[in-house]
Amino acid sequence: MTRASQQDNDHDPKRRRLLRRAATVAATTAGAGVAAAVGMPGAAQAAPGDKLVMGTTNDAGGASTTLTHTDSPLVLANPAGAPLRLVPSSGLYPHVLDAEAGTVAVDDQGDLFVRAGTAAAPTNGWAWTTEWATTSVAVPPTRVLDTRDANLRRNIVSGSLDSLGRLQPGVPVVLALDPYVRDGYAIKGNVTVVGMTGSGVLTVWGNGAKPTASTVNWSTAGTILSNFLFTKLGAVGAYRSVLTLQATASPTHVIVDMTSLLVGHPSQVLLGGGA
Amino acid sequence: MTSSEPDRSASRRTLLRRAAVTGGAAVAATAVTAANAAPASAAPGDPVVLGALNSGGKTTVTSRAGNGAATLVVQNDNGPALLLKRSESKLPVLPGSLESTTLGLGASGTDAGGVVRRYETFTTANATMLVPIPPTRVLDTRTAAGRARLLEGAGQIDSQGRAVAGAWLLVHLDGIVEYGDGMIGNVTVAKTEKGGFATVYGRGAAPAASTINWWGAGQLLSNGVITQTRAWSTANGAYYPDTVAIWVQKSASAIILDVTGLLVFHPESAVINNPKRLTADSGTSGVRADVIKANAERGDREVQPRA
Questions:
Q1: CB distance A79–B223 less than 8 Å?
Q2: Chain A residue with minimal CA distance to B121?
Q3: Bridge partners of B190?
Q4: How many CA atoms lie within 13 A of B113 on its CB side?
Q5: Cβ(B105)–Cβ(B99) below 8 Å
Q6: What is the predicted ipTM?
């Protein structure tokens, strides 16, 4: 059993950087021109009514340029990079909230604004990105902890059990799920208690101080009880996806079966079910 | 139980009207229709004319722009850069196609079998997501501190700290979520009087369903819960956009409710331990916060101006 560092790391920034890398890379070239700049903007300028000149900056002033065709009026290709860049604008709001359905724009926070709905019931929204959205990924039921079985105690990276392998009252145990998920947000599954000596409580949380909350409660020895589990994952030392478990009042064996992971992108899931 | 249902339609209209008035007509909008585009027009084979309607041909632009440059850069400092006119066409699409849809934005890609498929993009207007939070106790009827969030039912607690049989408890989630859609967590019963059950729910009338059941006296049991949230206005006019109801039936029991996750339209609605919350500068001048709230408006929920 490896002991984890006691230092808690900030969980989010590294995740965000990771996800940013995974997300579509935004172009950084300073393109100018209300209408279009094809490739790297050059010195030539075009005004409204002028022809669009390839490879230059073309400024349509206050007018819009419309391309219509019955089948994909505009096709863009770039084998070396992004075909299209919408330059982020800080002047979007609030005018854009009343724009025509179909309007898309990148705002000053880098989010993709989408105007949709119908004329009678328009909607404004922002497309989900891996920067801030979460998604649940179902996985085959996987037993990640069974304190009755030495092999199924292998994911414990911190804390000690009693001589029978049970959680000891007041002693937190840290379980690393890094073999199953990379920088996961949360776990869904089932937690079971068995082998207790009296009434007690089990609390499961991510990392840090034990919260005033409970996951499973029992009133007497000799019971077997299960409960659904949805818990935020934490980070401890080098471990980026951990659960902390602590019994109160009574020792108990604990079994954790994982059925789903909450992540920013399915590729973070490292076992069956992830993309 | 007391309730005054806010006029959700009026509130939403007010919000949208405010945005419209502030913005006025879109300034130099890229979004124009063919009718108000400049009269000049280009035909197939002609150059594309700036600021004009160009119809009749498919225009393909290719480049090998690298180092982060794009083939086409579209910029409008005064408004949106791109308008995709909605098409009712059901023709096959090619990978990479972007389309305006009623729900939001359609994108096309190739699946694992090589078949090109249309997908709908999730947006804050058409989908909800789960956001985990540190386990947070929002109700424990056994203590006065644990009852601090009760908006209804405080008078239905017996001397042992149990909700009496038939009690209807309403818990607010202020400081935890703003304009969310639901919550996920754990409900526990303790010191049960006799067999009974409790139902945790959000919007609408009390459902014919149970969240946790017990069969005798002196029991201590827990169960997972996922439920909608609801808005609530108290008799003195205080407004709570996110509350959860618990109906205790057949038996007195202490009730404990712990929240471990929130179902939201945008993670900024999860305000617990979140420095970037809806009431702060969420998006330019907080506009995004208002829109997220408006999107969260369902059933009996009123959108309140940002603080």
A1: no
A2: A127
A3: B254
A4: 2
A5: yes
A6: 0.81
